[in-house]
Amino acid sequence: MSYFIVFWGFFMIGFMAIGGYFMFRKFLKQLPKEDGKSMMDWELHYIEKSKHMWNQEEKDLLEELVSPVPELFRDVARQKIASKIGQVALEQGMSKINQDVVIEGYILATPKRDHKFLRKKLKEKQIDVSPYEHLFKRSKEDYRTNWQASYKKSQ
């Protein structure tokens, strides 16, 4: 019986630690940065500024790309990726979001481990990945603090 209580104690502490980790990450995203806005504020800003630019085809492509994300986290992933896509489209001065911008934003918003699925999905859809190779090489794990400036230089 005492082994069960010890096991249950470790089990509960483990789950509380996991939950606390995710809550702490969400808290950090809400903290304002140097410019006075948090990461979440910027995500919402880019989504609001670009929501009129989306066509149904691009929405469907985004939905297909976030499909492997567990349903519990899918809304958060969709918001993060859509905001990056909107940011890319706005910075490029586009009037409509197209397939290229969706793919570019997806690559920039996701870590390297997710790129394998993207490559597979693009191959299924018979889309050439060679124009995006320079983006694949600079995964989210490799970003520096001023990645936007170097991204603009590579354009």
Structure description:
InterPro entries: YneK. This is DUF2621 domain-containing protein. Keywords: Membrane, Transmembrane, Transmembrane helix. 68% of the residues lie in helices and 0% in strands. The chain contains 8 helices and no strands. Helix 2 crosses helix 4 and helix 4 crosses helix 5.
Topology summary:
Elements: H1 2-30, H2 39-50, H3 56-65, H4 71-91, H5 99-109, H6 115-124, H7 133-137, H8 147-154
Strand segment count: 0
**Domain module count:** 2
Number of helices: 8
Largest sheet geometry: none
Separation of termini?
65 Å
Fraction of residues in β-strands:
under 5%
Short description:
With 155 residues, the chain is mostly helical.
Which features does this protein show?
155 residues; 8 helices; mainly alpha
